[in-house]
Design goal:
With about 240 residues, the protein is an alpha/beta fold. The protein folds into two domains: about 10-145 and about 205-240, Rossmann fold (3-Layer(aba) Sandwich), CATH 3.40.50.150; about 145-200, S-adenosyl-L-methionine-dependent methyltransferases (N-terminal domain of TfIIb, Single Sheet). Helix content is about 30%, strand content about 35%. It has seven helices and eleven strands. It has helices at about 10-15, 20-35, 50-55, 70-80, 115-130, 145-150, 205-215; strands at about 40-45, 60-65, 85-90, 100-105, 130-140, 155-160, 165-170, 175-185, 190-200, 215-225, 235-240. It has a seven-stranded mixed β-sheet, sandwiched between helices. Strands 6-7-8-9 form a four-stranded antiparallel β-sheet.
C-alpha cells in the first residue's frame, strides 16, 4: 500500500472543494495582519499549495514545505498555472531544518496530526528554530473530539464522474488509521485503483500547550476552526509567538 498522498495529491484540492478555502484563507490573512506577522512566511505541510498561493497573492513572500513529493509537484504545477513564483521544498515537519529564519510559520489542515506524541516536542523545537525571535507559529490539529467521535471506525465516500474516493478508518488508543482507495477514470473510460494509508495521531489540547511552552513558545490563543469555541470544534488552532 502506498504512503499518504502518493496518489491523492492530484485530487486533494478538488475533493476538498467544500472545505471553504476562501473563508479559511481570509481567517489567516486577517489574523496574520492583526498580529503583525511580518512578510516572510513558511507553510509546513503545504500540500498542493492552496494557502501559499493565496498568501503570495496577498503580498507575503512564501515558502511551502511538504514531505510528499507528489504533493509538491502538484503545488508547483498549480502555482505555475496562476503565474506565481513560490519556493517549494521537501521537508519533514518532525525534523524541520531549512537553514533559514522566517517571520511566521503557518501549518493548517492537520499536518501535525501526522506526528506521534513522542515526536511532537522535537517537532515544535524544530519549528522554533525556523523562526526569528518573536516570530509567529500558527498551526491547527484535528481535535481529539473529531478523530474519536466523527472520524474513527467510519466509512467516507465521494463519488464523482472521473474519481471515486473511499476511506475506511480504524481507531487505536493514540491514533486513527485511514485506508484510502481511489478509483480514477482513464482515457479509455476504464477505472484504475490506487490505495494508500494515512495515520493521524490524537493530541489533547493541554498536552500540546505544555509541549509548545517547553519548546520556547508563548501561546497567545487557542481557538476552534475560524475562531469558534474550542469545545466540540473539529479543529483546534494554536497561535503562538517564539519567546
Amino acid at each position: 500500500m502506498a504512503q499518504a498522498y502518493e496518489h491523492l495529491s492530484q485530487w486533494f484540492e478538488r475533493l476538498n472543494d467544500d472545505c471553504g478555502y476562501e473563508q479559511w484563507s481570509q481567517y489567516f490573512l486577517s489574523g496574520l495582519a492583526a498580529l503583525g506577522a511580518g512578510s516572510r512566511g513558511l507553510e509546513v505541510g503545504c500540500g498542493s499549495g492552496a494557502f501559499t498561493r493565496v498568501l503570495t497573492k496577498a503580498g507575503y513572500v512564501m515558502t511551502g514545505a511538504d514531505l510528499s513529493v507528489p504533493m509538491l509537484s502538484e503545488a508547483m504545477r498549480r502555482a505555475r498555472e496562476e503565474g506565481l513564483s513560490i519556493r517549494y521544498v521537501q521537508a519533514d515537519a518532525a525534523k524541520l531544518n531549512l537553514g533559514d529564519k522566517f517571520d511566521f510559520l503557518l501549518s493548517p489542515n492537520d499536518c501535525y496530526n501526522y506526528i506521534s506524541q513522542e515526536k511532537l516536542l522535537a517537532a515544535f523545537r524544530h519549528a522554533a528554530a525556523a523562526l526569528r525571535k518573536g516570530g509567529l507559529f500558527w498551526f491547527d490539529l484535528s481535535s481529539s473530539y473529531k478523530l474519536r467521535e466523527k472520524i474513527a471506525d467510519n466509512i467516507f465516500a465521494d463519488d464523482r464522474d472521473d474519481v471515486t474516493y473511499l476511506c475506511f478508518t480504524h481507531l487505536f488508543s493514540d491514533r486513527v488509521e485511514m485506508d484510502v482507495t481511489l478509483f480514477v477514470r482513464r482515457t479509455d473510460s476504464a477505472f484504475e485503483r490506487f490505495d494508500e494509508q494515512h495515520v493521524q495521531y490524537i493530541h489533547e489540547t493541554q498536552d500540546v500547550v505544555g509541549k509548545l511552552e517547553q519548546a520556547g513558545f508563548t501561546v497567545l490563543r487557542v481557538e476552534g476552526h475560524l475562531g469558534e469555541e474550542v469545545a466540540n470544534s473539529d479543529r483546534v488552532n494554536f497561535i503562538c509567538r517564539k519567546a
